[in-house]
Protein 1
Amino acid sequence: MTLFHWDMTVKPHLQFIEAGAAMAARHARALPIKPEFQTMAQDQLAETRKILESALASIIAAEIIYETKALENAA
């Protein structure tokens, strides 16, 4: 995948994920109290965490593969 193609197809999604995570953290900090019951928001945060942990594991694996690639001008 070229850098241009990456910037057009992947980067915007990563930026939305970053912005969404920052927004979730801000709103969680802004809550004055926590209810005595499990909320749908808590359930969604837990599900999102699982998804992001899986995505992070995939990225780590991809980084390892990338690091083992031969250098472009290596003979």
Protein 2
Amino acid sequence: MMKIRKMPYFILALAASFLLPVFLCAQDAGSDEEILPAPNFFGGLIVGRFMPTDAVFKQVYGNSGSILGFQAGWHFFRSGVFSLALSVDFRGFSQKGASTITGTASTITLKPLSFGLEAHLQRGVVGLWLGGGIVSVSYTEQSSLQDISDSAMGFHVDGGFILQIPSFPWAALKLYGRWSKAVVSMTDFEADLGGSEYGAMILFRF
């Protein structure tokens, strides 16, 4: 069985294999094949599961936790079943843990802010999408010993499926897998605040 942490790579490979041939075919498609909703703007809520990459992070705070957020975007180019969109999203992740040495209770909060470019293919009720961009991760770690706050810049790649809701053309379910990397450097250590993520977004188009 494929490990969950490998899911983003599988989704990206699947999306890439589908994007190129359909895009080439779309160049000759007539206007009658335009099935994407007319509105160019979209926004929605994100519910997912975040799995950090950093080994020390996992020892203190566990292997995974829930992540919530929202996304907004704008389709600036369309050709047949193919479109390009700019997107921005903000996520929040918070987890309690304890130091592996002293057992001191602590809480970490991550707030990733991402800007990206997405390629969408929508044929009927099922579509594929592929994206990537930059991410800025702000984090705060609180314990009885000290509070630490910092931020790190990095990048992300993601992709998945879009399921159009037939009865509601202004709404869709966006399934995703994501991988990100953002390394923060302190005086005596480095930590990767990125990781793998999967989940769903409920999108509203307007």
Protein 3
Amino acid sequence: MMNKIKHFKIYLVYPVSILILSSFFYLSGCGNDTVTNNNQQTGSDTNVYVFDTIMINQWVNSNSLSSADLNNGKAVTDLSTIRDIQMRSANNNVSFSFRDGTFINPAGYECRFKKMYTTDKFDTVSVIPGGLDLGNFPDQKTDAYGLFNATSNQHMVIGFYLKGKIDHNITPHQVFGVLYLLYGAGGGFSNYSQYISVRINRDGQNHFVK
């Protein structure tokens, strides 16, 4: 009788030990070292950030919110060193364009632009045509795409690459995005404000829909 009990204990301990070891290896594989590529998920892309309405104001002085940090989707002052773009006028504040953040001191960050197209459906824009090679973003200014004001060139879509942010190790990956001229307000005797929408991918992927 004692031998049967011993054999039963051995048979019981063996599968329990296998179960414990299997659980240990499974949990070890789910630690912080596990790499997940969210762009291969079928659900929401957590690398895509959407900034629906950013207001950039006409330059009046160094305190004007005439620049933007596109990586974080916010307007910043003209002399902010985290700026990626500045809005400027080439014709006495009648019409405007964007340039990257390196044109005045203290310098901000280099941003490269690419004109895409004009559309009333920005929410359907999912990729930058032509890919993400640096040569596909040739410009540091957008004036060649046409100046904008409250009645001209609204709904233009501009692709961009935050080259300065990755060059200076501000972001861990390349950041690409699409910028949309939503609408403009003011001008003439009042200061002009340009409202933009921005979508970025912080994982360096050509994908801009959540």
Protein 4
Amino acid sequence: MDFSWLIWFLVVVVFLSIGFWILKALIMPVVPPGAQPIVWAIIGIALLIGLLIFVSSGSGFFHGGFHTR
């Protein structure tokens, strides 16, 4: 069984964690408290749209784009 997807998943989780930390520690203190929920909502919607594009593309993990035979 090929576990390369697990390695890619862990890489993505690490990069998303670093990105979240950068947003939380460096960018959000600059944004006014009343606007922070709106900024997080926009980021969440952008991530959901990106996920939908990735899943529906023909070259993603779910369509065999990274499998070698």
